[in-house]
TrEMBL record:
GO terms for cellular component: cytoplasm. GO terms for molecular function: endopolyphosphatase activity; phosphatase activity. Coiled coil: none annotated. Residues 346-365, 385-428 are annotated as: Disordered. This is Calcineurin-like phosphoesterase domain-containing protein. It comes from the Eukaryota. It comes from Phomopsis amygdali. SUPFAM superfamilies: Metallo-dependent phosphatases (SSF56300). Residues 402-413 have a biased composition (Basic and acidic residues).
Amino acid sequence: MSIFSEFHSSSRLPRILVAVLAILSSTLLLSYSRISSTTYSLLWPEPEPMSLEPDDDLSTVFDGISPMSYGKTHRPPMKGMPDKLVADLPEQYIPSLDGRTKRLVIVGDVHGQKTALEKLLGKVHFDKTKDHLILTGDLVNKGPDSAGVVNLAIELGAHAVRGNHEDRVLYVSMAMNKDSESPQSMSDKVDLETKVYEKGHEEEKDDKDPKAAKEEYLANEALLDRGDKPEYQTARSLSKGQLEWLSQLPLILKVGRIPSNKDLPPAFENMVVVHAGLVPNVSLADQDPRAVMSMRTLVYPVDELRRDAVKRWLKEKAEKKNRGMVANSQIDEDEVDEFLQKIMEAQGLSSDHEGDDVAVPTDGREGSKWWKEWNRFQERLAKTTTTEAEVKAPAAAATSNDDNKPGEVDASQKKHKKDKKRRQQTAVEKELSGMTIVYGHDAKSGLTVPDTYGNGKGHTFGLDSGCVYGRKLSALVIEARPEGVVHGITQVKCEKAVEP
């Protein structure tokens, strides 16, 4: 054997060892990766499905959740809000057979679409001497003629509520004029227009576009950002009188009861008009002004807190069973859902929030639609509470029926026994009981009225049907007739002003 052969044989052995070690290392690495990516292993076996044990105390699972409240205290005044957040519609404008007004015409979001508004009023044969117009807010912005819409509303003597777009325009207008309203500027009698002219004139000397300089100056002067440009343009298009009229619009307009010589449908016993919505079980005076102008849904913080409490309870339960060897990933979400339902049923709680669960308004789409929750709230009041008048009526009936024969039971007494199972309404519930809300704001949902709105079932009427997006402008027309109060929906097609 040559020296070369001996060297070649001796060098092959380390190479083989290196190859074997590489294969072993790769195998171990792949095995580790598979083990580490798997929740369970021989050392950490898959747990058995959780089940209720006889000694499980379900009544204490939610004990760690602190009580919550919303809308239970009066809010301090907010800058820029109208003198009255809640206003009453004057009685002279409530439809009646013997009064001045025969019809209420309540119109959804117009958004500067004056032509569509005129077309709609023409279609219902609006007569200023016999009819009264109410607008659900967002008269301005997006469309081509905000000033024209406001001017028409003023000319017709209309009532309206403040929407989120009016609020933004008024905020921008206030910011634009903050310097001109300061003591220094008042004493010097220098307004914003003068400053703009002077600043623009100076910029002209520097060979800059005076129009661009004016826009830039106004933006800086009024602390505006790019998102405020539409509101700025609208504010500049409105007269001082129009801005003043908008600034005094209430957030909530109480129409109240529309009288009739017939039994009224529920919709007209206690009516209010708002732009966006109201939170159930919160008095009108304590509603959040911003939410009234912008809300779309309600979320219940307690839902997440209860879910977290069930997770902790299941983890503690599993740790006891497995001697502390439980990973967070072992708490299955479906299992959490299952036990959450069981625990809530054991505690007499409902996922429909039938108790005193606190609801928080949001302008997003998550959570429950506020109007669905409002209708559930009204149904719950009708089923579980009784008014003061209903409590007094059986007693009066019992006094007047003393001549009944022995064993004879009056119908009112039967009702009284049934009503004993119902509690008396709180002050807030009494204020809100039977209240129907007419609102706008939610163009995405479109026209949203009770299933059979001809006879007033349901307690919400959503009238924003996306006119500014080329859809329709809607009106709820309520009329007093000899046969009673009737109502219906009238719509007209709109020209598209902006994209959705």
